[in-house]
Amino acid sequence: MQTVYLDYAATSFPKPPCVGERMRQYVDRIGANINRGSYDAAQQAGMTALLLRQRLARLFGLGDPTHVVLTPGNTWGLNMLLRGLLRPGDHCIVSAMEHNAVMRPLTQLAQCGVAFDRIPCDAAGRLCMEQIENLFRPNTRLVLLAHASNVSGTVQDAQAVGRICAAHGVPFALDAAQTAGHLPVDFDTLGLSALSVPAHKGLLGPQGIGALLLRPALAAELEPIVSGGTGSMSDSEEIPAYMPDRLEPGTPNLPGVFGWEAALHYLEQVTIPAAHAHERALSVRLLEGLRAIPGVTLLGPDTAEQRVAVFSLDFGGQDNAAAAVRLEEDYGILTRCGLHCAPGAHRTLGTFPRGTVRLSAGWFTTEAEIDRALEAVAAVSAG
Q1: Alpha carbons 73 and 208: distance in angstroms, whole number
Q2: What is the Cα 49 distance to its own chain's centre?
């Protein structure tokens, strides 16, 4: 039985063919480290890393590619931001829809004297905008939001939040795990000071690499949480003061660098607006089909305009885990069931602790696959 992959919110699959090809090219033909040699292979590796930074800076509207910090992934980048910026006595504002990539480090930091508040959200996962102003304190150092929920697909009004943060003089950061590559994301438009992204989701790259993009003023405030060799200033035991070396110790994931650079080149040819339009059409199709299926509750906004292509389903009187197993074993539909590393979001949506069955689409998802998934959901719901 041919399977239908609907777990893009976890990772994109398949990847563009150029991703694996470039990674193999690095492993088989180049293999050298960056910033560690002047021979040709090392220069090729260094230039590819530079090109990757330039593509990311251009994609997200950040003027200086040196402030694109390559990370081992989005969770790592968010930890770099939170742990590097917040000190005992500081205060941070997040939302009630955050992923544990934000909430677990914040919970740890709270044990060391860092305070945080959550912006309440409605039953669809949307920010209660009227309550944000009251959460600011004199010691608020950061506002950090998931741009879109990995549970309900709800897209937050980041531009409005950015304006509020600017009025308070507080840096605004986005976790764009579910929007990068799916929606236009721009530093100036949204009023961002920081943006953390993974390579392997909407940006179609490999796992194990991501980026933290920073305005220079905020980068200057971050204390490195890991330090070591950089291949630069090797005559000193002090951390380099300049970017990106200050926040990029050790050997980077160079196969990942080559694969991600190829993925971004592919996306530049596709264009983000085209990817967004494709996924919007799939979302409309899926929403219309789900509304016609009795016994299934769809979480999140009921229009495609307010969400990315992430859909959480509650199968009513059935066990959701059993429903997910049937979708796979009987119909070949690959989904994600559970709490999706976001217990706070599920509490907000009213699905904690039972969780939901999540279907998520992406660039390579077809209308025929959506139709097949709808048929399977209807059959499982009917028992």
Answers
A1: 5
A2: 21
* Cβ atoms 54, 65 nearer than 8 A: yes
Q: Which residues pair with 172 in a beta bridge?
A: 143
Taking the alpha carbons at both ends of the chain, their separation in whole angstroms is 21
| pLDDT in single tens digits along all 383 residues of the chain | 899 999 999 999 999 999 999 999 999 999 999 888 789 998 999 999 999 999 999 999 999 999 999 999 999 999 999 999 999 999 999 999 999 999 999 999 999 999 999 999 999 999 999 999 999 999 999 999 999 999 999 999 999 999 999 999 999 999 999 999 999 999 999 999 999 999 999 999 999 999 999 999 999 999 999 998 888 888 889 999 989 999 999 999 999 999 999 999 999 999 999 999 999 999 999 999 999 999 999 999 999 999 999 999 999 889 999 999 999 999 999 999 999 999 999 999 999 999 999 999 999 999 999 999 999 999 999 98
164 C-beta neighbours (distance < 10 Å), count: 18
Domains of the chain as residue ranges with CATH: 4-14+272-381 (3.90.1150.10), 17-270 (3.40.640.10)
Q: Are 102 and 78 in contact (CB under 8 A)?
A: yes
Give me the numbers of helices (H) and strands (E) for the chain, helices first please.
12, 13
Q: Nearest-CA neighbor of 142 among 96, 82, 83, 68?
A: 82
The tally of CA atoms less than 13 A away on the side-chain side of residue 312 is: 27
CA–CA gap between residue 142 and residue 86 (Å, rounded): 8
| Strand duo 140-146 + 115-119: pairing | unpaired
In whole angstroms, what separates CA 165 from the centre of its chain? 21
DSSP H helices, the chain, are 17-25, 40-60, 74-85, 100-110, 158-168, 187-190, 216-219, 254-270, 272-291, 320-331, 343-349, 367-381
What's the chain's Rg over C-alpha atoms? 21
For residue 95, the tally of other CB atoms under 10 A from its CB is: 28
Q: Edge to edge, what strands does the sheet with 310-314 contain?
A: 297-298, 310-314, 356-360, 336-338
Helix, strand, coil percent values for the chain (each to nearest 5): 45, 15, 40
